[in-house]
Amino acid sequence: MYQEIILEHYRRPLHAGLREPFDAQVEHINPTCGDEVTLRVTLKDAGGEPTLADVSYETLGCSISQASASVMADMIIGKTVGDAMEISEAFLALMQSRGEAEPDEDMLGDAVAFEGVSKYPARIKCALLSWMAWKDATARALSDRGEIAPLAQDSDGEKL
Amino acid sequence: MTSGGQATSVTTVEIDRGKPALDIEAVRADFPILGRAVRGGNRLIYLDSGATSHKPRQVLDAERDFYTTHNAAAHRGAHLLGEEATDAYESARTRIASFLSADPGEIVFTKSTTEAVNLVAYAMSNAATAGPQASRFAVGPGDEVLVTEAEHHANLVPWQQLCQRTGATLRWFGVTPEGRLDLTSMGELINDRTRLVAVTHQSNVTGVVPPVAQIAAAAHAHGALVLADAAQSVPHRPVDVTALGADFLVFSGHKMLGPSGIGVLWGRRELLEAMPPFISGGSMIEVVRMEGSTFLPPPARFEAGVPAAAQAVGLAAACDYLDALGMSNVAAHEEALTAHALEALSGIAGLRIIGPLDTDHRGGAVSFVLNGIHPHDVGQVLDELGVAVRTGHHCAWPLHRALGAQASTRATFYVYNTHDEVEALADGIRQAQKFFGTA
Questions:
Q1: Contact criterion met (CB < 8 Å) for A33 and B375
Q2: d(Cα A82, Cα A141) in Å, to the nearest integer?
Q3: Would the pLDDT of B303 be above 60?
Q4: Which residue of B has its CA nearest to A127?
Q5: Contacts of B404 in chain A (CB under 8 A)
Q6: Contact flag A2-B435 (C-beta cutoff 8 Å)
Q7: Which terminus of chain B is less hemmed in, N or C, by CB atoms within 10 Å?
Q8: Mean per-residue pLDDT for A38-44?
Q9: In this complex, do A126 and B407 lie within 8 Å of one another by their Cβ atoms?
Q10: pLDDT (tens digit, 9 = 90+) per residue, B241-262?
Q11: What is the enclosing helix (H) or strand (E) of B401?
């Protein structure tokens, strides 16, 4: 479970810290353990598409939740919201795979290292905490701009 | 001595370290689950009995015997099995009463400690509309309910909710840096407005045993009721409810070698007799007409629905098992393990124990934080070694906040744990430090 990539992101998290300016900020908590993330999203327009100019965060939690925030921020900053949402859905599917998935390395990059976490149901929420916070913050930022967030769905079509 | 350390009715235990209090190999042979392998083929080292205990075959056999030979709905049915099931259920009540030195009529079966606390809290809010007899339980604006910062959420949230429903004010004792109750302002916190004091009889995080008798005496001097959360005490040491001073005492079966789905509310008879019901329905009524109903005397008044007879029988078997070991021996065994753990863990650099560092008025819960390693990660490394611990805030979030910990790792001990397992815990912690490069 503790892949070297995960430990590396845990020891030296990328894009950590809360930055200005931002369009939306959310605080998410895992009530079973008290882990917390505060996350900010800054959007910009790139060719008419909403794009993630910055994702900044502060986490209080285990190595999995901290490394996951670092990997996520590094992967999605600079991406369009649509592309980032696709990555997010692929990551969610990986986390729900109980170790049975064949992750798409091209799409998920360093995040494939979290495949092992999916075998430990108690830890899946740790890995998903900042992704859920990012989705929430992005939806708020878009709705403040009068745009509707792309509807995130898992493979069963269940709304997340 | 800290404010929380005054002499109380807590039984003190003489420890003879030369002679083990329990025949540990014989005890372990009674618990089938201890024979199974866990991750990596490791043998199970179960240090999470504070969350739930394992069950000896004597308890499993008692439940199975009930289902295979006497099963029926207790207190119903014009048939032999109904009679036997009723007898088994009521005999279990008597057995559990004797375990606490209580009267069987003062034992109410609930589904858990949590439900038992809610039973009293809802009875108190129902009291406002339950007639003059119940008025002594009614609370409203101007009244105060006193809790402590050390409580499990189960003995905190129901009182917050009671205050929200009734307009009463929630107040609380804080804790000292080592997790004992700070009783310095007790003279102000317990006053004529105080209607009920809800206090843990042993913290599930720090192991602290507050001076319940002293608090109860102060509460009674102002006419307040006292509820003790004994979920972590009744399983682990002798508890005599007549000596404790509390008016209500609550605990669960599953933390004391018994089945899940059964808990107990002990209450003073005159209080239970005056208290309105919480959950209503069948079994608890006297006469039902379309216009309204009257209720049975306690304990039946508080046991609506078909009783959990098999679970009560299992809990009675757990009392038999614990009494055969001797609760003083159980307490002595756990105190020796706790002392060992406190010593072994205190020697680990970068480890801070959340709670007292000695066994004075302290039970067998040892919670700790490690510099630079989150409890989830500690728990994960320990799990890979077969060591099962609890991580997080253990349903005591305010206590963690008060003690400056976001979360902690907790080891709890019971009759089947050994000194070798304490060493395995300490070794596992050092391995976690090595793995995460913090030591």
A1: yes
A2: 14
A3: yes
A4: B376
A5: none
A6: yes
A7: N
A8: 96
A9: no
A10: 999 999 999 999 999 999 999 9
A11: helix B397-402
Q: Which tokens hold the place of B364?
A: 């067998």
Report the C-alpha gap between A109 and B418 in whole angstroms: 46
How many other C-beta atoms are found inside a 10 Å radius of the C-beta of residue B16? 9
Cβ count near A12 (within 10 Å): 10
**Average of per-residue pLDDT across B176-203:** 98
A108 in contact with chain B, both atoms CB, cutoff 8 A: no
Q: How distant is the alpha carbon of residue B336 from its chain centre? A: 21
Q: Which of residues 10 through 69 in chain A touch B, CB cutoff 8 A?
A: 11, 32-36, 60-65
Q: In this structure, are residues B113 and B229 in contact, taking their beta carbons and an 8 Å threshold?
A: yes
Which of B119, B127, B354, B395 is labelled catalytic?
A: B395
Does residue B438 or residue B183 have the better pLDDT? B183
Domain B3-56+326-435 superfamily per CATH: Aspartate Aminotransferase, domain 1 (3.90.1150.10)
Find the residue in A nearest to B376 (Cα): A62
At B39-92, the pLDDT tens digits run 989 999 999 999 999 999 999 999 999 999 999 999 988 899 999 999 999 999
Q: What residues contact residue B392 under an 8 Å CB cut-off, 6+ apart?
A: A32, A33, A34, B375, B376, B407, B408
- Using a CB–CB cutoff of 8 Å, tell me whether A126 touches chain B: yes
CB < 8 Å from A in window 365-384 of B: 374-377, 380
DSSP class of residue B67? I
- Three-state SS annotation for chain A: CCCHHHHHHHHCCCCEECCCCCCEEEEEEECCCCEEEEEEEEEEEECCEEEEEEEEEEEECCHHHHHHHHHHHHHHCCCEHHHHHHHHHHHHHHHCCCCCCCCCHHHHHHHHHHHHHHHCHHHHHHHHHHHHHHHHHHHHHHHHCCCCCCCCECCCCCEC
pLDDT higher than 80, residue B367: yes
State the pLDDT confidence band at A122, using cuts at 50, 70 and 90: confident
Rounded CA-CA distance B294/B34 in Å is 49
Q: Are B202 and B208 in contact (CB under 8 A)?
A: yes
Can you tell me the distance from the alpha carbon of B373 to that of B402, in angstroms, rounded to the nearest whole number?
A: 20
Bond before B299 cis per omega within 30 degrees: yes
Taking CA atoms, what residue in A is nearest to B393?
Answer: A33
Domain-wise residue ranges, chain B: 3-56+326-435, 59-323
Classify domain A4-142 by CATH number.
3.90.1010.10
On average, the pLDDT of chain A sits at: 88
- C-alpha A157 chain-centroid distance: 19
Whether the complex's predicted ipTM is more than 0.90 is answered with: no
Count of other CB atoms within 10 angstroms of residue B287: 9
Mean pLDDT in chain B?
94
A4 lies within 8 A of chain B by CB? no
- Which of these, B118, B93, B135, B168, lies nearest to B278 by C-alpha position? B118
CATH 3.40.640.10 fits B59-323, yes or no: yes
The tokens 């067998």 sit on which residue?
B364
**Does residue B395 have an active-site annotation?**
yes
Residue A110 has pLDDT above 90, yes or no: no
* Mean pLDDT of the region B349-355: 97
Contact B400 A34 (CB under 8 A): yes
What residue segments make up the domains of chain A, in order of their start? 4-142
Distance from CA of B376 to the nearest CA of A (A): 6
